[in-house]
Specification:
Keywords: NADP, Oxidoreductase
Helix content: 40-55%
GO molecular function, one term: oxidoreductase activity
Shape: globular
Family: Belongs to the short-chain dehydrogenases/reductases (SDR) family.
Distance between the termini: 32 Å
CATH superfamily of the largest domain: NAD(P)-binding Rossmann-like Domain
CATH topology of the largest domain: Rossmann fold
Strand content: 5-15%
Largest sheet: 7 strands, parallel
Number of strands: 9
Oligomer: single chain
InterPro entries: NAD(P)-bd_dom_sf, Sc_DH/Rdtase_CS, SDR_fam, Sec_Metab_Biosynth_SDR
Number of helices: 11
CATH class of the largest domain: Alpha Beta
Length: about 350
């Protein structure tokens, strides 16, 4: 990463989130890690904020499961940045808090429901409807964490992202939504709610990119027009209804914010391994993986830290990339069907 003062905000102190945190910090970024458990975040800070780390990891406890929580998180981030500016003696004329990269990585699994290709209609009802674990609460909770939180966090931090995008010519701030290959394939993998939520996260990435970087217009090139009459519209005769020729300058509502996603395959995390160690990292046995998934994943192994590092650096650093979801799965989707 070429920016010496890169400020990033990654949600995650374990699994893929920790991989991203370390990647950005080792490339000189100040990384805010967000989570509800302060002790877990502090453990990451104590473990990985080494003297030779070019960047820095900062714990920022917060809850992104509600608008109130997101609002409080935003206020905490701004206050922390302003406090550091004052402590550094940079003066009151320094620009307001800016955020170069936002990583939406909050995620939960859903309840597992059994399905069978040879099931009767009654079997389907029994498995998908009558099963005790198949509930509206499970669906709503999964969607709220995997989709809704990312939407509101991105919206809340839009001003800080835009400030970062305006600071340097040729640079645009980046939002990275971490979804999953489970949201791209046609099978449920016995996790209907989870896979559906990840599919929604992939599409949310596309919509946000179109609305933020694409100007929000339904027609190509359409943006917000500023007219002499003070109105705003697609064309405009000054009354804002867009039904005439625009008089004066035209301002497109495109912001210098890119929104992209990463869809990982199987990577070691608390979700896939079931636990994490004292270093907040999880492990997947390569031999077991090869025996159980070898035919499904051409790479013959689970994802590694370096794989995620290369992916996130590409997505963050490539300013010509917008509205895309980069699949990092060892080739799994080639056979799974999308």
């Amino acid at each position: 990463m070429h920016r010496r003062s890169q400020r990033t905000h990654a949600g995650g102190g374990s699994g893929i989130g920790l991989m991203i945190t370390q990647t950005l910090a080792w490339n000189g970024a100040k990384v805010y890690i967000v989570g509800r458990t302060a002790s877990k975040l502090e453990r990451v800070v104590e473990t990985y904020n080494t003297r030779d780390l070019p960047g820095r990891i900062v714990a920022l406890p917060g809850d992104v499961s509600s608008k109130e929580g997101v609002r409080a998180l935003h206020a905490s981030f701004v206050a922390h940045e302003e406090e550091e500016t004052k402590a550094g003696g940079k003066g009151a004329k320094q620009p307001a808090a800016a955020l170069d990269v936002l990583v939406n990585n909050a995620g939960v699994a859903s309840a597992k429901v059994e399905t069978d290709a040879n099931a009767s209609a009654e079997d389907v009802r029994r498995s998908l409807f009558e099963a005790e674990q198949s509930t509206f609460d499970d669906w709503n909770g999964t969607y709220s964490t995997n989709v809704t939180s990312g939407f509101f966090v991105t919206a809340a931090f839009a001003p800080q992202l835009q400030r970062a995008g305006e600071r340097e010519k040729g640079w645009s701030a980046a939002v990275v939504n971490v979804s999953s290959v489970s949201g791209l394939i046609k099978h449920s993998q016995r996790h209907f709610a989870y896979n559906a939520s990840k599919a929604a996260a992939v599409y949310l990435t596309r919509m946000l990119a179109a609305e933020i970087a694409g100007g929000g217009g339904e027609k190509k090139g359409v943006g917000v027009r500023e007219t002499e009459g003070g109105g705003e519209g697609g064309g405009g005769d000054g009354d804002g209804d867009g039904d005439g020729d625009a008089k004066g300058s035209v301002k497109e509502s495109r912001l210098k914010i890119r929104v992209n996603g990463i869809a990982p395959g199987v990577f070691p995390s608390e979700m896939t391994a079931g636990e994490s160690g004292g270093d907040q990292k999880s492990e997947l046995d390569r031999g077991h993986f090869a025996r159980s998934h070898g035919e499904d994943v051409p790479a013959g192994r689970p994802g590694e830290e370096r794989d995620m590092a290369q992916a996130v650096l590409f997505v963050v650093g490539c300013t010509y990339l917008s509205g895309q979801t980069v699949v990092v799965d060892g080739g799994y989707t080639l056979g799974a069907g999308m």
